[in-house]
Amino acid sequence: MSARPLLRIHALSKIFSGIPVVDRVDLNVMQSEIVMIVGPSGAGKSTLLRCVNRIETPSEGDILLDGVNMAGEIRNGRLVPDRPTVTARKRRHIGMVFQRFNLFTHLTALDNVAIGPRRVLGMKLADARALAAEQLARVKLSDHAMKKPVQLSGGQQQRVAIARAMAMKPVLMLFDEPTSALDPELVGEVLEVIRALAEDGMTMLVVTHEMQFAREVGTRVLFMDEGRVLEDASPKEFFHAPQHTRSKEFLRRLHAVME
User: Fold this and answer.
1) CB–CB of 38/222 below 8 Å?
2) CB–CB of 23/228 below 8 Å?
3) Which of 49, 44, 99 has its CA nearest to residue 204?
4) What's the average model confidence in pLDDT over 153-179?
5) Which residue ranges form the domains of the chain, and what is each CATH number?
């Protein structure tokens, strides 16, 4: 018998002004999979992640994380939506890193990481800061713990954001184009942190335009366009033998830009 997926998405749609931005997506993600989500701008990639993390409320469909319905509870055959406090409690198990770093400018790197364990998990200040120090060491920022965001490079700020997400001990990490706001020379340091998380077995969904990174680190590649998943394949299959006409066109244009 196969193991139950850590993340199960069924018939997920998100509709804005009558237009499906995410259109009937089905996706099962097993423990320790690294799913790279690629495609053109406006394909629905970021909205998909925001629905998984309940930042956006799906219009239709189900999202189950480790068997728990992220939207509510089924009672007498009907879905009863969660109260906001219950939604917040469920979201603790998902870490999310955005394009922008969203750090508190008045706090040090250490306290930016410690604030979640302190306020959400109720840890004592000393324990939260000890945990934060561990996570900063994990992203190789121990020497910058007492600096404020303005004193850090963009790559360092994004690594603080990753440490902050990891401090909540998530079972699933979501990355929404985590390098798109960085200067080219800073991209590598952030990708190396994500690569290390993959090697540690963290389950991840990563929206990215870094195709080489997707090829090397991903266990699967999803190609999205117009809200739909058009291709779900191994990196080798996707990059060397794509099946869908739209993904073939996407890769052909990408290669033309890189040449």
Assistant:
1) yes
2) yes
3) 49
4) 96
5) 1-93+179-259 (3.40.50.300), 101-169 (no CATH)
- Report whether pLDDT(256) > 90: no
The mean pLDDT value for 151-174 works out to 96
Q: What is the model's pTM?
A: 0.93
Q: What angle do CA 51, 115, 87 make, to 5 degrees?
A: 30
CB atoms within 10 A of CB 213: 20
Question: Would you call 127 exposed, middle or buried from its count of C-beta atoms within 10 A (0-12, 13-18, 19+)?
Answer: middle
How far apart are alpha carbons 228 and 255 in whole angstroms?
A: 23
Q: What is the mean pLDDT of residues 47-61?
A: 93
Strand pairing report for 7-16 and 19-29 = antiparallel
Phi, psi of 234 (to 5 degrees): -70, 155
